[in-house]
Amino acid sequence: MSIGRVGHMGAVAVAAVAVVTLIFEAWIGPFPVELFRFPLNVLTMALWLLALGYLYRNRTTSTTAQLLLSREATYLSLFILATTGIALGLELRPSTDAWPVVIGLLFVLSHTVLVVLRGWRNSNGIRWRFTITHLGLLLALGAGFWGAPDREQLRVAATSEPTNEAFTMSGVLKTLPYDIALADSRIELSATGSPMLYEATIRVEGQNHTLRVNHPYDRTIVEKIYLISFGTTTTGERYAIIEIVREPWQWITASGIVMLIAGAVLLFARGPRRKYNDDNQ
Amino acid sequence: MAGWNIFPMMAAVVVLLSASGAVVALRCKERSGVAILLSALGIATMATFIALLWLSLERPPLRTMGETRLWYSFFLLIAGLITYARWRYTWIMSFSTLLATVFIIINIARPEIHDQTLMPALQSVWFVPHVAIYMFSYALLGCATLLAVVALVRPALQLDHAIERLLYGGLAFLTIGMLTGALWAKDAWGAYWSWDAKEAWAVATWSLYLLALHASPSIMAYRRKVLYYGVIIAGFLALQMCWYGVNYLPSAAESAHTYNRE
Questions:
Q1: What ipTM was predicted for this assembly?
Q2: Cβ–Cβ gap A264/B205 under 8 Å
């Protein structure tokens, strides 16, 4: 099949998918992220990876694989990321669970997986800069994408009385497996009256922990407890708003970010691959 | 301790030295040591002022818009000097000095509050690297954009090598700046990425520059090169939105990035 014909088919496919996602968005509302909690997200991800592996094995005969591995697919992936950023930045659709965004990101991830499979090594050996940057992007973006349904964000109004009642961001009551109580809180102001320090000491599982902005308490490897704000109720009782974030995929995201930073250092150190006449000046 | 009050005087010295360096560079056909020395002295003067301001404020001067403009002018002069010293474009320092001067004048015309307060959200080990690296990337990408504009107007000039090198350097620092911000955000707000307006524009900027980086200017026909230069310029416009343009959007009031709006 000629490249021109493949390109035309790709353009038609992209346009069709874009229209379908817009119809879905208008018809059934945002993508049902909540449905894909563990283990359904892991199962779906495994099937997706298997499908991509199958496509890659048949890349010489499969038109879909050729389209997904084309240079145009790279341009389209980056165009999707850029337009997503612009649309969200302009608040045209202030949500990341819109169907076009979800399907667009799935396309970007699918393209990146296939590109990594194809390009991680060549006849000279492993392509470190390419592999680190693309695998880092895959891990950071992929963990954010597939792990989003498992992320929990709960808020607790902690007072001197221990409580295990927490609320989701949509106001649903949840019961924590432990109690939280506010032991102490402190604000330091500068001479101009601006806040210099917010600090609260909370009691969790029989131990005191001090929370400040930028200094959460790591309760477990996947759970951090943050100080959001504090104040005094009408009855004069002090309270602190505490946020509990459970993010099982956070270390995969962090690994991806570290790999991307290492890749960026290599990008700067090695520069473009292409040689110009003035390279040896 | 000398602080913001001596800025106009120091700025005059910086502009005088840098402009003299740029003029000498313009008049010489080859790379001029005098031009490099004069520009380096201008940069050293700016560095001295930033150090004095840092000492007088007792915090890194990276908080307000005015302070980030200060770093941007500083890094623009450095990026211009590096580009001149490496690729010998005699006119590049005129552009970078002019652009740096514009930002210096804005800072003189719009003096902002520069008190010692460093709000709790900014008291983090990530604060200085995140902002300084970002500002350096903005300067490199600013120079790449200047070259892209010149390349559009004067296609006969061979600027692709310099544009691509600046793009690689600028994008590398942009990536590091963005990701140090993500690591900081996890500690501060519990999420690496929240897609608020500033973060959304950061992704748009990064993606546009990545788009340019994945193109190959050395093998392009001129018609496609126009698109390549256009993407670089679009990236720079998105960068302006990310830096300060978001402050004028309705969502700015709810943004977590409110600390630099003074």
A1: 0.91
A2: no
